[in-house]
């Protein structure tokens, strides 16, 4: 185990964390403003990836694909909000879970219908191909660094949007008192649609970025969705700051756990078993961390003050 | 007799009559279908205890279902090979022993998961139960000793003393009796002082706390009993398929169990059975027409949630009873 290898894994963890943040930010925003739990958020991630792969295959340009992923995911989000989600705001969480679970079935099977069961592939754009030399001498893919940078830019933009713009003021007002901002003349229904579409666009963007690293296939959103749930539970549901911290924590712990735990167990047990125990424990590690955090702070690290 | 009681009786009789008829005319496939209904109904009855009576929306009951399944699979594997399991104890192929182990293991898991999850409520509870179930799922996938991702086959279906469990009808009857006993237990619990406290804790936890009952303990007990019932169903499900795999632990399974309850009618005695029957029939009927049956299942489910909140029993008996 060398320093360079550890650094590489740390960067991988950061990259995972940044992608998780894009998912978790949308989820937590939607929950914070509308009080809605959206299981279908992973489907919007998938929509973004499929849109990007399809448009990139047509036009040969990853960048057009990326724009398409934002547009398609936002449009899909807006349509779903208008047709279905809107009717769920006044319902209990059980109904929300079920309706959005139904949406997952519809999205997944619908996508399989349109695109077939075979995964699509998305190439990394030429501009971002290649590798960068890290201190310590190893090469690290430029594209993964670009993902980290893109995530950081989006996180900053989101911060500016929420703290500095009129829309952001309305979103924050919606989080603290829905009836009041309705009474003050803000069209709350449109605001909800906009917030949902914004969350969807973030998910779609994440899907498109990750699509170039993995294959684009039906069901790709579900593992990410569940990790994003862990993130917002750790961070405190409704808190963007919590989502950012939680996402980086989960990304780094998960990646480093998979890398380090088998090596730690080698010190105690025979290597064949160390891989098995370490691997099994590493796959459970973030859930254990989540349980520990909740045992101390049941509402997450940054619980929203008003809830 | 109320209308709901009549409907319940019809459901119970139908579930028994169809396999008997199928056996008489030599169509064992329908017996398997009915067995599937009975087992899923049992699993959902367990969940209904937590979700329907206690208002605890557990999105992680697949964990208990799968733990029960793996208990059956692992005991049967050791019973078959003769290798000792732990502490020198050997495996077994006797269903009553397997059921006991499955229920107790699932119950202990329920206690552990519940003890942490029940400190929270609402959306947190939904997500945390989901996350714990995923933890068990990933453990099963990455632990190679019992098949890992490939799952575990049970070579010969486990035995019940005095019954030839390999006959489809006999196995169905075993599951049917277990289901009826469990539904009876559910009714007993619902009518008991404990059940009243549990339902009161759902409706108004503050008031329950004010009269000196801690909602946490009541809920934890209910959650553990609920896990035991679902675990028992998992053991039977493993024996039905003679196969256990991590898919029993997947979050789709958790979602399906909730769907069964909602399709049938939340908190109702025979809601899970009605829902399971409806679900398996929809799956079978749509699956015969189109390969894309999940798409239409999603549409049906969406329709039920948005427009028909009482589920099948609510529709038939005409009285809305939700949450």
Describe the structure.
- The complex is a heterodimer of chains A (307) and B (323).
- Chain A is mainly α and 307 residues long.
- Chain A has a domain of 209 residues.
- Chain A is built from eleven helices and two strands.
- Chain A has a two-stranded antiparallel ribbon with strand order 1-2.
- In chain A, helix 1 runs antiparallel to helix 8.
- Chain A starts with a helix and ends in an 11-residue tail after the last helix.
- By secondary structure, chain B is mostly helical.
- Chain B has one domain: ABC transporter involved in vitamin B12 uptake, BtuC (Orthogonal Bundle).
- Chain B is built from 13 helices and two strands.
- In chain B, strands 1-2 form a two-stranded antiparallel ribbon.
- In chain B, helix 2 packs antiparallel against helix 9 and helix 2 packs across helix 11.
- Chain B is globular.
- The interface between A and B is large, with 44 and 42 residues.
Structural class of chain B: mainly alpha
What is the overall shape of chain B? globular
| Overall average pLDDT of chain A | 88
What share of the residues of chain B does DSSP label as strand, in percent? Answer: under 5%
Q: Please report the distance between the alpha carbons of the first and last residues of chain B.
A: 24 Å
End-to-end separation of chain A in angstroms reads 46 Å
Rounded mean pLDDT of chain B is 88
Q: Biggest sheet of chain A, in brief? A: 2 strands, antiparallel
Based on the coordinates given, report the CATH architecture of chain B. Orthogonal Bundle
The Cα radius of gyration of chain A reads: 20 Å
CATH class of chain B: Mainly Alpha
**Number of DSSP strands of chain A?**
2
Number of beta strands of chain B: 2
Topology pattern of chain B, helix = H, strand = E: HHHHHEHHHHEHHHH
- Secondary-structure-derived class of chain A: mainly alpha
Q: Which quaternary structure do these chains form?
A: heterodimer
Largest interface: A-B, 44 and 42 residues
Strand/helix succession of chain A? HHHHEEHHHHHHH
Largest beta-sheet details of chain B: 2 strands, antiparallel
């Amino acid at each position: 185990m060398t320093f360079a290898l550890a650094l590489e894994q740390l960067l991988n963890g950061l990259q995972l964390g940044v992608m998780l943040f894009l998912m978790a930010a949308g989820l937590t925003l939607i929950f914070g403003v509308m009080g809605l739990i959206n299981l279908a958020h992973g489907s919007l991630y998938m929509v973004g990836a499929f849109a990007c792969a399809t448009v990139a295959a047509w036009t040969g340009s990853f960048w057009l694909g990326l724009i398409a992923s934002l547009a398609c995911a936002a449009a899909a989000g807006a349509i779903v909000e208008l047709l279905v989600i809107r009717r769920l705001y006044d319902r209990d969480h059980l109904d929300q879970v079920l309706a959005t679970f139904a949406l997952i079935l519809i999205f997944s099977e619908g996508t399989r219908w349109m695109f077939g069961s075979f995964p699509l592939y998305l190439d990394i754009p030429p501009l971002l191909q290649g590798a960068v030399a890290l201190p310590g001498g190893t090469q690290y893919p430029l594209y993964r660094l670009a993902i980290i940078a893109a995530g950081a830019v989006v996180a900053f933009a989101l911060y500016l949007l929420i703290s500095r713009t009129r829309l952001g003021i309305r979103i924050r007002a919606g989080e603290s008192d829905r009836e009041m901002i309705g009474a003050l003349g803000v069209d709350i229904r449109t605001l909800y649609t906009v917030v949902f579409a914004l969350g969807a666009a973030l998910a779609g963007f994440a899907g498109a970025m990750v699509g170039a690293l993995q294959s684009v296939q039906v069901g790709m959103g579900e593992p990410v969705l569940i990790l994003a749930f862990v993130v917002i539970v750790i961070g405190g549901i409704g808190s963007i700051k919590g989502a950012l911290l939680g996402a980086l924590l989960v990304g780094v712990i998960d990646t480093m756990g998979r890398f380090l735990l088998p090596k730690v167990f080698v010190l105690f047990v025979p290597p064949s078993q160390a891989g098995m125990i370490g691997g099994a424990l590493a796959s459970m590690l973030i859930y254990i961390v989540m349980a520990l955090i909740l045992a101390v702070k049941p509402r997450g690290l940054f619980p929203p003050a008003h809830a | 007799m109320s209308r709901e009681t009549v409907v319940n009786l019809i459901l119970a009789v139908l579930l028994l009559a169809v396999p008997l008829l199928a056996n008489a005319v030599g169509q064992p496939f329908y017996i398997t279908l009915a067995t599937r209904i009975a087992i899923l109904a049992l699993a959902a009855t367990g969940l209904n205890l937590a979700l329907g009576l206690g208002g605890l929306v557990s999105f992680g009951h697949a964990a208990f279902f799968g733990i029960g399944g793996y208990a059956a699979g692992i005991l049967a594997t050791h019973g078959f090979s003769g290798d000792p399991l732990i502490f020198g104890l050997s495996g077994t192929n006797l269903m009553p022993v397997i059921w006991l182990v499955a229920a107790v293991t699932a119950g202990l898991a329920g206690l552990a998961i519940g003890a942490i999850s029940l400190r929270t409520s609402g959306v947190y509870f939904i997500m945390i139960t989901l996350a714990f179930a995923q933890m068990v799922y990933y453990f099963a996938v990455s632990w190679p000793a019992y098949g890992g991702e490939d799952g575990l086959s049970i070579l010969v279906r486990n035995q019940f003393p005095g019954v030839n469990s390999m006959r489809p009808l006999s196995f169905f009857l075993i599951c049917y009796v277990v289901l009826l006993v469990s539904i009876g237990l559910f009714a007993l619990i619902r009518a008991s002082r404990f059940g009243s406290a549990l339902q009161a804790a759902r409706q108004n936890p503050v008031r329950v706390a004010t009269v000196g009952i801690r909602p946490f303990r009541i809920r934890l007990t209910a959650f553990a009993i609920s896990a035991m019932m679902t675990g028992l169903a998992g053991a039977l499900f493993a024996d039905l398929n003679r196969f256990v795999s991590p898919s029993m632990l997947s979050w789709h399974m958790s979602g399906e169990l909730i769907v069964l309850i909602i399709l049938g009618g939340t908190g109702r005695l025979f809601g899970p059975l009605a829902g399971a029957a409806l679900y398996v029939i929809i799956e079978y009927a749509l699956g015969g027409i189109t390969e894309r049956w999940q798409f239409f299942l999603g549409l049906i489910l969406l329709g039920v949630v948005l427009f028909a909140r009482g589920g099948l029993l609510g529709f038939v008996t005409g009285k809305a009873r939700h949450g």
